[in-house]
Amino acid sequence: MTFQIINPWKQIAAAVLGMGVMISAASAAQKRPNIVFIFSDDHAVQAIGAYGSKINKTPNLDRIADSGAVFHNSFCANSICGPSRANILTGKHSHINGFRRNGERFDGSQTTFPKLLQNVGYKTALVGKWHLGTDPQGFDYYEILPGQGNYYNPDFIQMDGSRKRYQGYCTDIITEKGVEWLKEREGNEEPFMLMLQHKAPHRNWSPHPRHFNLFDDAPVPEPDTLFDDYSGRSRLLKENEMTIKDHFHWGHDAKFKGDNEFPEYFKGLGNGEYRRMNDEQKAAWDAYYEPLNQKFLADMRAGKLSDEDILRWKYQRYIQDYLKTVQAVDDGVGAVLDYLKESGLEENTIVIYSSDQGFYLGEHGWYDKRWMYEESLKMPFLVRWPGVIEPGTQSTALIQNIDYAPTFLEWAGAEIPEAIQGRSMVSLFENQGVPDKDWRDAIYYAYYENAAVHAVPIHDGVRTDRYKAMFFPRTREWNLYDLEKDPQEMTSVHNDPAYANILRGMQQRYWDLKDFYDVNSATIPMTRGDEGWWRSRQQEKNALAREGNVDLAFIGDSITQGWEGAGKEVWESYYGSCRKPINLGFGGDRTEHVIWRLTHGNLNGIDPKVAVLMIGTNNTGHSMQDPEQVAAGVQEILNIMKERKPETKVLLLGIFPRGRTPFDQKRLNNVAINQSIRRFADGERVHYMDIGHVFLNEDGYLPEDIMPDALHLNTAGYKLWAEAIESKLSDLGI
Ligand code: CA
């Protein structure tokens, strides 16, 4: 990638530092632009006027757009709250910054753009939602919401760790606190960067009373795909749990009080926001919601409503509440813009509006995000910089949230670290949104949070200006969409012969981009907890481990699990209870799943003397993964063993041969992996053996009376395995 950074401010800063001249850094830096980054949670572009909303009006957001630029192809790298924030702070994809799933803890010691802005003299502040599990670093001032935060009378975590509760409405409080900080800075010369991060319009969509009646005159139009039946795409779509129809909660989403009267239509979560309200707030709330609720409930009790009517009612409740919370964000944006104008800061302050990802506003029958479909993949990106960005700019350049950090750094005249994966967008702003010839032609996306709320599977993919390819590792399915012909993504054309070349090309782009961004799935911890048997086995094995009393652990995939099947008798006679063994083999596992298991309970409670590790044949069998990448996965497992069980000797086995003939492609791939992993043996902690030859005949053929399916051992095979490692186990003291 060749990308010239032309930045006058960096040269000024260098001159000041280099020559030691008698002007203060502050005065040289004074003209550097201020940055106000207004960021909301789950605000989809379909609900912004400047993006052509058909369902609401956002006059203040449109002020940014009218006086600046709208980016129509703006995407997240991982469509969920915490990970998107980590992408933005670091300028890196999730597998690099380590925050892949909500609930993980962000490693705050890593390099982030606020820290780098501080280094070049910026004052930095953060108010609002953070959601990264660890304390913010790189801010001169912050006040953040705990976790998801609340709409009513929210608590804020202070810089000293204490909590304060403020009476009022969260969106308004965040705006006020941001403006207060700006006012306190009046007269200061240093440039500043303010992040105003709203909770709104995140679930449970609790509006301020001033917006209750916004849609009294007419219902909100329904999206075309509200009644999507999920046919024609990955079968995994049907498994997700984020439909308005079946996954809408009684109090939390529908805003009913009391017990759930219609459990066949509503899930059971109550309304936690209502419980936080003071009497006055509750009175206003009830005055609006109760008459509407009672009317609906009376109709329900009278059996007057069809399933379709009920879905339509839920959609209106959902979308109206959502849009009302958006309206308070829009009000807040207006207040910030007004303040910048009145204070004279407008000229030299860049204002950006974005949101951590998009959201389904009833499209595909969904609320929530996560899937790589357009509605949640897209992030709003509105930006204005008077005098630099031409008002009314409309850009279709492909941008992504990993680009924000390098952009801010270039604006501030700071060095952009090599390790940042995003690209500065400054040239786009200076060229009316038109990308340079070497600008990216595709973005890479990855979602990791399976086996969690809403049951959306792990998937990743690429999107160009016209096509989108998605890959689902669990079912090893590809989906392909032609966004020009099928903008609502209702039919995957991956099996359509007319698209065979496009699919091949998109798959090539996928592998290229994974290579470019250093995505090695063999080393990224992955759970298969969305598969019932796997989840049960994991719980069972963790429970066994907690009991302790293990000297010998076998770690691997189905071939290791088979000690409980075809190998059972051999296991009993060689290991039985006298050697205190545990079988940590899980059929179908690849290196990334073993990494997950070993860091999620399989080792908790045990201190084996020896661990026998054999893993990787599914990395080959499922995708012929590059041998060096699989070897890196094995290396990561060894690193985890070293960190968690430094006393355990590891007997690393070469991956067993597979396929009948010596020239079977998968067998050759395993041979290549073995050539790499043998180097990991140190003769002290890690010992290597390749016992594959014991299963083969003299010509290198794999006989059916050892491996009937040319992959898994029968009883005779397990006997050969046990015999082959027996003396080594004794040497290792077991
Ligand atoms: Ca979010």
Summarize it.
By secondary structure, the chain is of the alpha/beta class. Helix content is 34%, strand content 13%.
Structural key phrases:
Arylsulfatase, C-terminal domain; single chain; alpha/beta; disordered N terminus; Rossmann fold; 5-stranded parallel β-sheet; binds calcium ion; 21 strands; 8-stranded mixed β-sheet; 3 domains; globular; 734 residues; Alkaline Phosphatase, subunit A; 13% strand
CATH superfamily of the largest domain: Alkaline Phosphatase, subunit A
CATH structural architecture of the largest domain: 3-Layer(aba) Sandwich
Residues in β-strands, percent: 5-15%
The ligands found in this model are: calcium ion
Task: Name the structural class.
Answer: alpha/beta
What is the radius of gyration?
A: 29 Å
Number of domains: 3
Q: How many runs of DSSP E, i.e. beta strands? A: 21
Unreliable sequence segments: 1-30
The major beta sheet can be summarized as: 8 strands, mixed
Terminal CA distance = 53 Å
pLDDT average, as an integer?
95
